[in-house]
Amino acid sequence: MPILDSHTIEFFSRSPEQTRRIGMRLGSEIKAGDVICLQGDLGAGKTTFVQGLAQGWGSQDSVSSPTFMIVNLYRRANGGQLFHLDTYRLESVPEAEELDLDSMLAEGALVIEWPERLDGLIPKERLWINLDHIQEEHRQMRFNANGKRYDDLLNSIRQSMFGGA
Q1: Among residues 99, 148, 88, which one has the least CA distance to residue 124?
Q2: 10: which DSSP letter?
Q3: What are phi and psi of 15, to 5 degrees?
Q4: Exposed e or buried b per residue across 19-34, where buried means at least 16 C-beta atoms within 10 angstroms of its C-beta
Q5: Model-level pTM?
Q6: Which residue, 23, 73, 92, 136, has fewest beta-carbon neighbours within 10 Å?
Q7: Could you state, in order of their start, the residue ranges of all structural domains in the chain?
Q8: Residue 60's CB: how many other CB atoms inside 10 A?
Q9: CA separation for the pair 98, 91 (Å, rounded)
């Protein structure tokens, strides 16, 4: 078990429902300009996590994996926007540059599946979440914060999940 620091928390999810609930807790905290990166193999639970995140955020739209669309847009009643990217099918960095992440971030929050394919295009300040498939329904999730906003986000999640400091 790695030694975790103040920028990192780890969860162990035993079911898709629990993965969704953890996503909901995070979703209730995110706001425009936030960048959430989800890294994990096919079947690791990324889309399940985003379903919870979008629900917690207040999405009026149902969540599906944007594998073939690359970007899905979710909206909520107050006009907020959540951009869900799946960059699995991107062929190159120039193709990724065409997505124009900056304009998305100016309008809403950004959730990126397969963020490692976007090379250096993702802001340095972000929340990076690794999902690992442990057993049939068990997932290990490691949240790593880069930047004060994301440390604050982690602290909120830590408090809502575990209580206390």
Answers
A1: 148
A2: E
A3: -160, 160
A4: bbbbbbbbbbbbeeeb
A5: 0.90
A6: 136
A7: 11-160
A8: 9
A9: 12
* pLDDT tens sequence across 44-74: 999 999 999 999 999 988 887 776 678 899 9
**Could you tell me if 27 and 56 are in contact, meaning their C-beta atoms sit under 8 angstroms apart?**
yes
* pLDDT digit string, tens, across residues 107-146: 999 999 999 888 788 999 999 999 998 888 899 999 999 9
> Between β-strands 35-39 and 126-133, what pairing exists: parallel, antiparallel or unpaired?
parallel
Tokens of 81: 């926007």
Coil, helix or strand at residue 7: coil
- Which amino acid is residue 110, in one-letter code? L
Q: What's the rounded Cα separation, in Å, for the pair 164 and 158?
A: 8
Q: What is the layout of strands, in order, in the sheet containing 8-13?
A: 8-13, 139-146, 126-133, 35-39, 109-113, 81-86, 71-75
N residues, the chain = 165
Contact 82, 109 (CB under 8 A): yes
Written as six digits, the tokens of 152 are 């604050």
SS3 140: strand
Residue 108 in tokens: 């809403």
Q: Which two three-digit tokens encode residue 33?
A: 């300009």
